[in-house]
Structures are given as C-alpha cells and as structure tokens.
C-alpha cells in the first residue's frame, strides 16, 4: 500500500499485534502497534522482518508466561523474527516494559535446525530506537536486541557452549539502544560494524556482547555499562577502524573492552582505530598503535590531536575525567574544545568543526582496571 497509517492495539488476553507466516516487510506509511499479553509480540514473523521505509512505533507491556507448545517460559518482544531482522531505511521505535521482554529478538534455534541455515541480520540504513525496562523472570532475561541462539552444556559461568549461530552486520543507519536490566545488544554469532552510528547503554549487564568475534572496521560506536563490561566478546575483539567509545563504571573484574583470553582469544587495537575507554582494557591486549592515558574534563567535549589537526572530539560522561585513548598519529589531547560540526552517535562523537580548548599531555597506558574480563552473556 502507498502510505497508510495502521493502528493495532491488543489487550492482556489477546495475541500478537502483527503476524507474518512468510515475512513482514514495512516499506512506507505508519504502523503503530500496542500489545499487552504475556509472551506476545508486537510484530512476529515465521521468517524475516524487513524495515525499508515509513515511520513505525511498537509498544509492548506483556511479561513472561509458560509456552505449552515449546515447554518453556517465554517473554514478549517488540519484533520477533524466526530467521533474521533487517533494516535499510525508515524509522522504527520500540518500547518494551515487560519482565523478560526484548526489543528485537531474531534468529531461533528451531528455524535454524529446520532450514539448516540462519541468515545474517543486518542494518544498513534508517533510524532504530529500542528501550527495554523489564527485569529477568523465570530465567527469561530482558534485552534490548538479541540476535541468534546458543546451546550450552551445564549452567552458570562455567557452562560449555556447544553451538551457536546468528550474525549481525551494521553498515549504516542510526541505532539507539537503552536497556535498564539486561544486555543492550547481544549477538550469538559474530558482530561486525562497517559503518553507521550505534549507541548502546545498559544499567545492569554488558552494553554490547557477542558469542563470536566482535569487529569494528568503520562507523561510530558508543557502549556504556554500569553493571558489566561495556563491550564483551567471547571470541576476539578487533578494533580496525572507526570511532569506538567504551565506558565501564562497574569496576574490577569488568572492563571497558573485553575479549575471551580464557580460551586464547585477544583484544586487538589495530592501526586506523580511534578509541576512547574508561574502566580498563582486557589483559594481554595487542596494539599496533600507541595506547595512552589522558586526563580530560568530565561532562565536556575533549579531543584527540595528531600535531596538525584534530582527529576527533568526544563528549565525556558526567563524573568521568580520565580516559584510555588511542588513534592514528595521536600526539596530544585537548580539553574544553568547542564543536560546531556534525555531531554523531547520539551526541558523543564529532570529527569536524572542532576548535579551541587547551592541550594536555598523554602518558603511556600501562595498567588495567580489570581482570580477565566478564563472563559470557546469559541466555
């Protein structure tokens, strides 16, 4: 249809807002969905969900219930896709206040087992906003975005992963995720940033977590956690390019940027990446460009300079004034700078229109505020 406005509201005894037996594709118009029943979804698909245009709002309040068919407890979701979630344009806003609720949940074990494949989820354009405020209930955790599945042998921190699938590639668009009581962005396979602007915060768990490798090649990434690691990979974490800001206020043993050194994996900071961190780096990290400590100004714009021009400016969180920094040809830091250019990633990064400020010296980073990193993400 050309550009309709469709409004759907379901009560506490009803089902999903929209159900696609083959797929759900939003190309134009406005879809406004509100669901209140336990374990039901605003938008549900037996295959994929694709957003390529229009302006859409999904509100979910339902909590956890026992699913007789699957013989397990299940939570609600703003969007549930058994195969993959994709976004190339348009605007999608999701709010889920239900316990055990997720904003987006894509990639199920059953679909993978039946079809022998799970397609990659991807975001290449558009505006995506996800907010979840519910808590874990009946061992069903609340998360902002969850991609893929994992199976484990055993329970707790020492459980052995026996299989997993579900990748996410971010190459464009703007992503804002706020999770009050769970992980912000969790990917059970590899997570790769090739562009775009991604802002993720969590008050109680990892802001960004993946079971496989976490790679940043391009784009702007911000991860803030006051409850666990800011960025946590159970494989390797490779920062090859782009702009990464990771803030962890939890303290030892959690860190700003983590990798699975317990199983021989590593954090790599490679030439070309611009990195700002608070809360320590994974022990044994490897860097092909210098890593420094810098004293900045809390709640203000600070910047990195290569001796000729500003590399980038970053907005420091309130009450945080010391940082770990690394960037190509980095020679000094600046505090109190002004930014008049385009501000990226929900107001925390800028690469042009930077001026003024006072130069501050850098010292070699030799310490680590955390231990070997955080535990793998929970199911």
Task: Output the keywords.
about 375 residues; mainly beta; 2 domains; 19-stranded mixed sheet; nine-stranded parallel sheet; 1 helix; globular
The percent of residues in helical segments reads under 10%
Q: Helical segment tally?
A: 1
* End-to-end CA span: 38 Å
Q: Which structural class is indicated by helix and strand composition?
A: mainly beta
| Shape summary | globular
- How would you state the average pLDDT, rounded? 94
Which band does the percent of strand residues land in? over 45%
C-alpha Rg, in Å? 21 Å
pLDDT under 50 segments (min length 5)? 369-379
Structure description:
It is a single chain. The chain has 2 domains: 5-287; 292-364, no CATH class. It is 2% helix and 50% strand. A hairpin with a 4-residue loop joins strand 36 and strand 37. The longest helix has 7 residues, at 109-115. It is globular, with a radius of gyration of 21 Å. The two termini are 38 Å apart.
Summarize the structure.
The protein has 379 residues and is mainly β. The protein has 2 domains: 5-287; 292-364, no CATH class.
């Amino acid at each position: 249809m050309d550009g309709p406005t469709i409004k759907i509201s379901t009560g506490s005894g009803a089902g999903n807002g929209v159900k696609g037996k083959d797929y759900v594709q939003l190309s134009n118009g406005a879809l406004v969905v509100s669901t209140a029943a336990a374990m039901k979804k605003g938008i549900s698909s037996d295959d994929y969900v694709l957003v390529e245009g229009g302006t859409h709002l999904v509100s979910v309040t339902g909590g956890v219930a026992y699913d007789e068919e699957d013989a397990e407890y299940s939570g609600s979701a703003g969007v549930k896709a058994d195969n993959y979630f994709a976004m190339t344009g348009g605007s999608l806003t999701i709010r889920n206040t239900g316990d055990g609720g997720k904003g987006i949940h894509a990639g199920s074990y059953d679909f993978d087992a039946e079809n022998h494949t799970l397609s990659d989820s991807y975001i290449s354009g558009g505006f995506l906003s996800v907010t979840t405020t519910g808590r874990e209930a009946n061992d069903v955790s609340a998360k902002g975005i969850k991609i893929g599945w994992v199976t484990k042998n055993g329970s707790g921190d020492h459980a052995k992963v026996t299989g997993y699938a579900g990748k996410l590639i971010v190459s464009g668009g703007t992503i804002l995720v706020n999770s009050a009581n769970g992980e912000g962005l969790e990917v059970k396979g590899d997570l790769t940033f090739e562009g775009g602007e991604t802002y993720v915060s969590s008050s109680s768990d990892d802001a960004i977590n993946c079971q496989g490798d976490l790679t940043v090649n391009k784009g702007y990434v911000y991860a803030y956690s006051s409850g666990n690691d800011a960025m946590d990979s159970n494989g390797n974490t490779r920062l090859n390019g782009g702009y990464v800001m990771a803030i962890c206020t939890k303290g030892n043993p959690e860190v700003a940027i983590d990798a699975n050194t317990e199983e021989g994996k590593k954090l790599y900071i490679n030439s070309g990446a611009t990195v700002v961190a608070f809360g320590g780096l994974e022990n044994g990290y490897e860097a092909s460009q210098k890593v420094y400590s810098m004293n900045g100004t809390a709640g203000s714009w600070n910047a990195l300079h290569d001796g000729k021009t500003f590399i980038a400016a970053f907005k420091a969180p309130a009450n945080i004034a010391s940082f770990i920094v690394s960037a190509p040809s980095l020679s000094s830091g600046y505090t109190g700078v002004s930014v008049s250019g385009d501000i990226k990633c929900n107001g925390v990064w800028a690469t042009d229109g930077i001026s003024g400020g006072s130069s501050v010296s850098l010292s070699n980073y030799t310490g680590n505020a955390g231990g070997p990193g955080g535990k793998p993400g929970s199911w």
